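Quarterly update from the structural biology core.
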Amino acid sequence: MAPVRAWRQALRGHRGLALLLVAHVALATLLALHVLGAQGLLVAAALVALVLLLPPDVALRRTPIVFVIAWLALVGGEAWLRAHPTQVGGGGGGNPALAGLYADLYHYNALGLRGREVPREPGAGTFRILAIGDSFTLGQGLGEDDTWPARLERLLAEGRAGAGPPGADAHPEVLNAGRAGNDAWASADFLRETGLSLHPRLVILQFYVNDVQRRSAAADEPALAQLLTSLRAPLRSSYVLFWLRDQLHARPDLEDWLAAVANGVERGSPAWRDFSAALADCAAQLRAADVPLLVVLFPHPGPPRDTVARVHAAVTESCRRSGLRVLDLQADLATVPVGEQALSEMDQHGSAAYNAAAARAIADELAAAGLLPE
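Predicted structure, tokenized:
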């Protein structure tokens, strides 16, 4: 009990330092949780234990200098990485440096779509195709002309890749409604709020494996977990914290993550049921509007993966049971050399070659399915 009494006396005698110490430990705990996840609790507990084992007067006297050194190091690291953004780390997903590197790359029209200005209603003789999806449709890290929707439009206009020339009264127009972070529910909401008002004659819905992650998961979290999530939100824009996660291998390993997604799909997890409901919502809206839908499955760039094939097989079967036409791009994209499929080591989204192969395969599928005008 003597250490407890000593700490009580010290805290009463040094209230300002005590508040600084508490703030320091609280901030350190939050950063440890953000960087290390659940393991951060162990780091936080060790930090608290270390503080409590020190004599109270010593711990309190050293608090200001430790606080200053620790936070100056973080600020200095943040400044250096912002000046050298390519050193932040790889993976693409959630990397805050990419937003800065790509800041001038994307241009959106008045309708919120990537690309040139187009009227809400297509002009006479226009065959409008609406491409909906996530960053693979947006074309993360790519120039406008290298995205698969832009390439598809050119292929259809030129009558290449087996698509056949369009009719004289059917000029092809492919609208890029891709958004980074979109999931199946976001696509359903977009169709309802905006997509159908653009009067498409065909909709292409792009799928990537993270679409089967549950949108409503956050609502099911305990209140404390939701609070921590909201507190961590501003930290996601920090270059130095992302770098630390990358260096400590604290971010989910790609292969482990893909395996977890595949296992969840095969178990019929809530995430899979949520995705299926969202896909059914998209299909119902388009069926009511008498607009054909093609679901296109985009694999993760790189070598063929059994986990991706398992997810794609489940989505394909679900689409076919619902009467939806589906195109799995795994075989078509395997024609692109593995080393040329990803944009870069820093960003694992599809390269220009990856998008070109996807556009050719989609053009061929549209022609084979009779979804293009005569």
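The beta strands are 126-133, 171-178, 202-207, 293-297, 325-328.
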